[in-house]
Design goal:
Elements (H helix, E strand, L loop, with lengths): L17 E6 L4 H11 L5 E8 L3 H11 L3 E4 L2 H14 L4 E4 L1 H9 L5 E4 L7 H9 L3 E4 L3 H17 L2 E4 L2 H9 L2 E2 L2 E2 L4 E8 L9 H4 L4 H5 L8 H9 L1 H14 L6 E5 L5 E7 L4 E5 L5 H9 L30 H12 L3 H17 L7 H12 L8 H22 L1
Helix pairs in contact: 2-3, 4-5, 5-6, 6-11, 6-14, 10-14, 11-13, 13-14, 13-15, 14-15, 14-16, 15-16
């Protein structure tokens, strides 16, 4: 690579527009994606957006960005959105339902799909995007956790490029040698995922017994939706990321290590057999990995202030407390067990988090409910999509039964 003298060179060239479908436009990742897109109007064009029932927020997005199509899962919300957009003279077409969601993931009018829907609802449209050979920016964890082998096989068969948007996996991607055909893990000794430790890293265990929803949602570093925030408080979020990393980078679970790093400035690291450790650093802002994945192999402005090392007081690391964070152990065990166990883990956790947010279960019972479900559910080979979906349904039913016995 040639050296550039003087200031950093900035290319005036603007590439032809990529067309983007944003699955989950009203959540925190969706909002960050829209912010990045708005900074590069000549480079990106928004084709499709989706949401569950947030029609008011979706109306603002459609009026501002003029996508071709908007899909709402909730029928009443779709009707309200359609009425609002007609009154505003916005040409965006409104569609409704899960079939429309999956069709949008496959729609050839977009060459890039950002999968930012939280939970198992993202599975079908994300798989459709992978099967269609698109650039798939993956922020949703559950699609990989539930059906990672199927999704990655579909991507290989179609030539789809899967770009991780989770800050940790995106950091790993940046720390590995990459070409247009993929990444290389040769010589890697360990993938080191960093975890902030969430709001309860130093909370006395006795206080965790009466931890409130508001306390669990108060993440010290990141602004996220409620489900991901609760997962971060239990470290289940990191457990799901362990499973994701195995699928994304074709690694064994024994190749993954988790360290608690409360500053959240190092987003993850790769340790090589020669003793080198390469880390990706930056402010805790989702716009950085989103911009990196959108523009790769180039770089674009994400609207994120650069990290000033003179302001960094220190970088600290510690091992995760297995007593405080049993969910992390469960995730490692589910990935080691293989088959449908990761799908069972994910389904049980979604039921547990919903129950906690509703006030129906205590914080320390979240991991207990997941473990009970894993014990009660029968793991089976994850042969195909129907078997995975059935495992998900069965696990949710078991989790709800177990929930009734907890109190």
């Amino acid at each position: 690579m040639g050296m550039i003298s003087g200031s950093v060179a900035k290319s005036p060239e603007v590439k032809p527009a990529r067309t983007i479908t944003l699955l989950g436009a009203t959540g925190s990742v969706g909002t960050s994606t829209l912010d990045v897109l708005s900074r590069h109007p000549g480079r990106y064009r928004l084709h499709g957006v989706t949401a569950f029932a947030s029609d008011a927020a979706m109306a603002g997005i459609c009026i501002a960005h003029r996508p071709t199509v908007a899909v709402m899962i909730d029928e009443a919300a779709a009707d309200r959105l359609s009425t609002t957009l007609r009154a505003a003279g916005c040409p965006t077409r409104v569609e409704q339902g899960e079939a429309a969601l999956e069709a949008l993931g496959r729609d050839a009018s977009a060459d890039t799909v950002v999968s930012a829907i939280v939970g198992a609802a993202a599975l079908l449209p994300t798989l459709a995007a992978a099967e269609s050979g698109k650039r798939l920016l993956l922020a949703n964890k559950e699609a990989l956790v539930m059906s990672g082998d199927l999704l990655m096989s579909a991507a290989r068969a179609s030539g789809a490029l899967v770009m991780p948007v989770d800050s940790e996996h995106n950091a790993i991607f940046q720390c590995l040698p990459a070409t247009s055909t993929g990444i290389c893990t040769k010589g890697v000794e360990k993938i080191i995922l960093t975890a902030s430790g969430g709001p309860f890293r130093t909370t006395p265990l006795e206080a965790l017994r009466v931890a409130t929803v508001q306390q669990a949602l108060a993440h010290p570093n990141w602004t996220m939706g409620p489900k991901i925030s609760i997962d971060s408080a239990t470290l289940m979020n990191k457990g799901l990321e362990v499973i994701e990393a195995c699928r994304l980078f074709d690694l064994d679970v024994s190749d993954i290590e988790v360290v608690v790093h409360p500053e959240s400035l190092i987003h993850s690291m790769v340790r090589y057999v020669d003793g080198s450790v390469i880390a990706q650093l930056g402010r805790p802002d989702m716009r950085t990995p989103i911009a990196q994945a959108l523009a790769w192999p180039e770089r674009i402005d994400a609207g994120v202030a650069p990290l000033d090392f003179t302001e960094v007081a220190g970088l600290h690391f510690e091992k995760p407390d297995p007593v405080r964070f049993p969910a992390l152990r469960l995730a490692f065990e589910a990935q080691a067990a293989g088959g449908t166990s990761p799908a069972v883990l994910n389904a049980a956790n979604e039921v547990a988090v919903e129950a906690f947010l509703a006030g129906d279960v205590a914080f320390l019972q979240l991991a207990e409910l997941v473990e009970r479900t894993l014990v009660a559910a029968k793991s089976a080979p994850a042969r195909d999509l129907p078997s995975i979906i059935q495992a998900d349904r069965d696990a949710r039913e078991i989790a709800r039964r177990e929930l009734a016995t907890l109190n």
